[in-house]
Design goal:
Layout (H helix, E strand, L loop, with lengths): L9 H14 L3 H6 L2 E3 L6 H9 L5 H7 L15 E3 L8 E3 L36 H18 L6 H6 L2 E3 L8 E6 L19 E5 L11 E11 L3 E17 L2 E9 L8 E4 L12 E2 L5 E7 L11 E4 L12 E6 L13 E11 L4 E8 L9 E7 L2
Antiparallel strand pairs: 1-2, 4-8, 5-6, 5-10, 6-9, 7-8, 7-10, 8-9, 11-17, 12-13, 12-17, 13-16, 14-15, 14-17, 15-16
């Protein structure tokens, strides 16, 4: 939600109007009403999380303050918002599953029962109607519980490119060749290895080469001057026959991108997070910078992988969230404008050299290398 400053004349008038509205309530109702004075940086989303325990309940706060908040995308410092209190349902969109249109014929209040009966039509609801909101929220919660048990999905962790030391991954092995005969005269350097194809690998240091052991295939991306070397996972293989003399037969189980002979092999590490534990918002989190975007996209979308300069030494950990911020320059008087938040990313993997993340949400695709970012949610 975007926000700006409101005229100093309007704010006292709004506060006075709210005070008058509250004074007209019965004494018991006034005692039950809870209010919040808006501070710079507040949003209805954040206030719903703070007071109601669920950011998706922000429409409830909006409905209580329609006289003060004309547009839920805009709230202003010093506004006094009602957090608790009764809320009247509002009309809205047709074909709403929470409360279908009622076309039953009913007499209007005080009307005669004889003759043709008037048709009463229940007005449909908007997204701000509490009945509809409960249905939508219930569906969303069910999907969330089924789709993600922890803050970082294992697949996002495995496929995430990461920043390694400038010398690369120590003790890495090699993908040698396929065990399959090539009937079309191509070498493995020209065609990718196919899923479930059998290959030979030279084991990396730390790998035992036992049957069913899994290893990570990867290639190197560009060097980031002063930071390290980009490592890009390409797939996962499973050892299918016990290793001999440091060489094992394996099967390609997973491909993140095309896999070719000559790519590097490393031991497969996995991420373990406590289920049901998610990050909480923090103020003034660690600042960092966007260093690299996978495949150099013009407009990266949700699910795209990024790398930032801050690393484990800066306190970052998988599950944290980072907000990318665009510099808005200065206004006509030369006063610096606050940065604009354009995307939120989830940290997937952290090394001493940098932090890998995947895009969760964005309002603008204008990301570029060197863009400032800040940690806005931390794992406990």
């Amino acid at each position: 939600m975007r926000r700006t400053h409101r005229s100093p004349i309007i704010v006292p008038l709004a506060a006075a109007g709210l005070a008058l509205a509250l004074s007209s309530l019965p004494l018991a109702a006034q005692e039950a009403v809870r209010t919040h004075t808006v501070r710079r940086g507040d949003t209805l989303w954040d206030l719903a999380q703070q007071y109601l325990g669920d950011p998706f309940r922000w429409p409830e706060i909006y409905r209580r303050n329609t006289e003060t908040v004309k547009d839920p995308h805009w709230i202003y410092p010093d506004q006094v918002l009602i957090i608790s209190g009764d809320v009247a349902p509002t009309p809205g969109t047709p074909a709403d599953p929470a409360q279908p249109t009622d076309t039953t014929a009913r007499p209007a209040p005080g009307a005669q029962t004889g003759g043709q009966q008037p048709v009463y039509v229940q007005k449909p609801m908007t997204i701000f109607n509490p009945d509809r909101f409960r249905v939508v929220r219930g569906t969303r919660e069910a999907l969330t519980l089924r789709s993600r048990a922890s803050a970082v999905r294992s697949g996002d962790y495995l496929r995430a490119p990461f920043l390694a030391p400038a010398e690369g991954v120590a003790g890495s092995g090699k993908l040698d060749a396929t065990t399959s005969a090539d009937g079309v005269g191509l070498t493995l350097t020209k065609r990718p290895v196919q899923l479930y194809e059998r290959v030979y690998v030279q084991l990396p240091s730390g790998a035992a080469g036992t049957v069913d052991e899994r290893l990570m295939l990867f290639r190197y991306g560009p060097d980031v001057v002063g930071e390290g070397k980009i490592v890009i996972p390409t797939g996962v293989v499973r050892v299918s026959a016990a290793a001999q003399n440091g060489r094992a037969e394996a099967i390609l189980l997973t491909k993140f991108e095309d896999v070719y002979a000559g790519q590097e092999v490393m031991a497969l590490d996995t991420l373990t997070l406590r289920p049901g534990v998610f990050p909480s918002r923090v103020e003034f989190g660690t600042r960092t910078t966007l260093l690299w975007m996978y495949d150099e996209p013009v407009l990266p979308g949700i699910g795209h992988h990024l790398i930032f300069g801050a690393g484990s030494g800066d306190g970052l950990m998988p599950g944290d969230q980072i907000t990318l911020q665009r510099d808005m320059g200065v206004d006509t008087r030369g006063v610096p404008l606050p940065p604009e938040d354009i995307a939120v990313v989830q940290v997937t993997r952290v090394t001493p050299q940098g932090t890998s993340a995947v895009i969760l949400a964005e309002t603008d695709g204008g990301m570029k290398i060197g863009m400032a970012a800040r940690v806005t949610a931390k794992m406990p």
